[in-house]
Amino acid sequence: MPLPHDSDYKRLFDNNGRWVSRVGETRPGFFKELARQQAPKYFWIGCADSRVPANEVIDLAPGEVFVHRNVANVVPHSDLNALSTLQYAVDVLHVEHILVVGHYGCGGIKAVLGGARVGLVENWLGHVGDVMDRHAAELDALPDAEARHDRLCELNALEQANNVCRTTVLQDAWRRRQPVTVHACVYGLKDGLLRDLGFNVAASGSVPGDFASALAGLQSP
Ligand code: CO
Questions:
Q1: Which end of the chain has the lower number of beta carbons within 10 A, N or C?
Q2: Angle 145-166/207-215 helices, nearest 10 degrees?
């Protein structure tokens, strides 16, 4: 079937063709093998921001990380999309690690802090506004806007990871002793580095204590 003559669009198919040849040279049989099944160890919940591509940042090939992304990496208690993806990751794929990844320089976080009018997405970002309000005392005590932004990126990743722990999906998995750990991380656009935020939870009973320690900047055990 002929492609439309838009070069920006056509370029993607040229790229794809080159990528398939490259992968075929370095890993013969890769696509056939992958088509049979996926068995990723990791589930990445991150921001939709184009500068934070999950596979690339953690240098993993197709098949190695299951991914859910939305604006400002939010996991609301009643979001059927996030919950369904989480349930599939845990119950069907049996991922061992769930990473909730915020990132510095997040437009969603900036909009919330700046009180900007950004349309419909403001309603979604209300969840981040809740996080900001819950930690207003800590944020207000910081010296400048940049420090407040960076900290809210961290706090939001921690709060959303805490939300993941409180879902029926994780509670049930831990009850049946399934090995799965929830982590909170933050990614730096300026240096490309992923940072652990000290919230690494593998059991239901430790969630409140580990969350409090991570908020206080202490490493969870
Ligand atoms: Co973002």
A1: N
A2: 170
Q: Measured in angstroms, how far is the CA atom of residue 160 from the centroid of ligand 1?
A: 14
Is 47 a residue of the active site?
yes
Q: How far is the centre of ligand 1, averaged over its atoms, from the C-alpha of 105 (Å)?
A: 7
**97 noted as active-site residue:** no
DSSP reduced 3-state for 90? helix
Q: Is the pLDDT of residue 219 over 60?
A: no
The CA 123 to ligand 1 mean position distance, Å, reads 16
How many other CB atoms sit within 10 Å of the CB of residue 78? 6
Question: At the fourth CATH level, which superfamily is domain 38-219?
Answer: Carbonic anhydrase (3.40.1050.10)
> Domain segments of the chain: what residues?
1-36, 38-219
The tokens 């935020």 sit on which residue? 197
Distance CA 150, CA 23 (A): 38
Q: What is the pLDDT of residues 19-68, one digit of tens each?
A: 999 999 999 999 999 999 889 999 999 999 999 999 999 999 999 999 99
Instruction: Identify the pLDDT of residue 220.
Output: 47
Tokens of 85: 């993806």
